[in-house]
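Colleagues,

Please find the record for the two-part complex below.
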Amino acid sequence: DSGVTQTPKHLITATGQRVTLRCSPRSGDLSVYWYQQSLDQGLQFLIQYYNGEERAKGNILERFSAQQFPDLHSELNLSSLELGDSALYFCASSVGGQVSYEQYFGPGTRLTVT
Amino acid sequence: LAKTTQPISMDSYEGQEVNITCSHNNIATNDYITWYQQFPSQGPRFIIQGYKTKVTNEVASLFIPADRKSSTLSLPRVSLSDTAVYYCLVGEYGNKLVFGAGTILRVKS
């Protein structure tokens, strides 16, 4: 158990819909990262937040957005969903603000878009 | 970011030592070498990190030669539960993690 929690575990929704994925980092960690893992793209970094502020951006689509709240939990919002958005979405956390190579990953949310 | 090359897959038997080598010819001075393990449908798990020579923890050892153009993750006495994908990442703090295809390790009884 990494100490990072993600909800929900599974999500099934239709194209065009909007969903919100939630992540709680390990106690004491201020950075939260979001990743997408699909069969054809592998594990892709989406975005990092540190103490409430966006710190680094990866291959995140404009239809996706994220935020980190004062209690440090984070939410990833996916809108206008397409079939290709079906994937595992992982959240990870680390202590500092700089992108760390020692990150602790949650169990993931499996999103299925039908 | 330094490009990494790993074998696509490896097979081993329980109780054997497994060595997975990663090639990173373009590694930069400030780059660290980090290995992650991922089981199916689970998030990656940090295994070990090093800069040069040898690093050992309770799970694995990491060997890095003087030129740092490659590294070897060593898993002692593997068991069936070590069957997973192993990723080698190279980069410096502040740069995003780039996961490649990894090495699929299959441990057989």
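The two ends of chain A are 31 Å apart (CA to CA).

Comments are welcome before we finalize the supplementary table.
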